[in-house]
């Protein structure tokens, strides 16, 4: 499955609360969402979408890759409004890491979570929805399954996944944006942890396809400047991991977007 960007969609530019309403944030707010990538019960450093070679996170914020240590360290950096959690074991067809996600819930019981756990059908939906907002990823779903799951859970988040210029998923998903939810992630796995910068072209393209959805950038954000560029491209926020842990984005930067 997969295809290149829709006709008229620009190529990747510059190499350098849960809502039920289907419309963009009226106040123009912009949200930075830390990413927690889980593998084997630990928080790992994601790079280029090459999951077989991910290693436990090494962070300036804490000396541990345990979720019980990483999450408090992130919240000590800034009062983030939510976290994005990717269960990479589940995304690769292995058992879910629900006990690790439950440990996160105990550390921050009131913090909203977006959870990508490789949801493929309705049976997968309930355990994730009990713990947070499900993320439906194009890389693991047919377009028909995505529409059925969105009908069952309208507050779910849709992640439109690319690797470089190639869509991971069925092209039909791009042809029916009227069925997309309020929150959509513009994910480019080739840019995750890469230092290449965000895919501004993908943000703009998804904003044109679904102007009533809020689009969140994911992959490649390196700095406060990149956060601003994503906002200028039409993003309502950005998912960030490496730049938080290595100190390229710090508390004063984050305060600009609060």
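-> sequence recovered:
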């Amino acid at each position: 499955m997969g295809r290149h960007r829709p006709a008229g969609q620009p190529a990747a530019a510059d190499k350098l609360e849960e809502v039920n309403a289907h419309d963009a944030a009226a106040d123009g707010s912009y949200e930075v969402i830390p990413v927690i990538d889980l593998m084997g019960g630990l928080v790992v450093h994601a790079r280029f979408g090459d999951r077989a070679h991910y290693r436990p996170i090494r962070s300036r914020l804490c000396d541990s890759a345990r979720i019980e240590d990483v999450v408090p360290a992130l919240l000590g950096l800034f009062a983030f409004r939510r976290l994005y959690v990717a269960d990479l074991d589940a995304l690769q067809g292995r058992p879910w890491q629900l006990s690790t996600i439950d440990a996160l819930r105990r550390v921050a019981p009131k913090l909203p979570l977006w959870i990508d756990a490789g949801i493929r059908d309705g049976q997968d939906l309930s355990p994730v929805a009990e713990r947070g907002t499900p993320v439906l990823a194009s890389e693991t779903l047919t377009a028909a399954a995505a529409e059925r799951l969105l009908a069952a859970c309208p507050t779910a988040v849709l992640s439109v996944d690319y690797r470089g210029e190639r869509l991971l998923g069925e092209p039909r998903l791009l042809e029916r944006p009227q069925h997309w939810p309020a929150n959509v992630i513009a994910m480019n796995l080739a840019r995750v942890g890469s230092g290449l910068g965000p895919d501004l072209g993908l943000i703009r393209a998804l904003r044109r396809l679904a102007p009533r959805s809020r689009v969140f950038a994911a992959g490649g954000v390196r700095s406060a400047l990149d956060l601003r560029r994503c906002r200028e491209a039409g993003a309502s926020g950005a998912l960030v991991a490496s730049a938080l842990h290595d100190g390229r984005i710090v508390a004063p930067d984050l305060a600009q977007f609060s």
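The chain is about 30% helix and 20% strand.
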